[in-house]
Sequence to fold (124 residues):
Amino acid sequence: VPVVGRVRAGEPILAQENIEGALPVSRAFVPPGDAFALRVEGDSMVGAGILPGDYVIAICRPTAQRGDIVVAVLGEEATVKRFVPKGDKILLVPENPRYEPIVVDGSSEEFRIAGKVVALMRRL
Fold:
């Protein structure tokens, strides 16, 4: 699974210039489809068991269901949050009470869902 280091708005997440390396992952853990990994920085998702330094593995998917944990792209930054649609807005909800949800206009060109998180890897 390719490890994505940088994400640019409007650019496919698996564009060659974004790839920083690869993680060997069994297909038993990752469903078929274009998958990518992203190294987690920060502690906003600790309540979901996602810790700083973990790698989340996501399947490329431009849409999400309420409650999915997603890799969302805001401008040129990627973030891992829980997806909660509310009318014409989208809440990207952290799993740490120290952080507030990010409120996004669902029609904004600066926002897109890059993928749905399906697994994580952690070094012990």
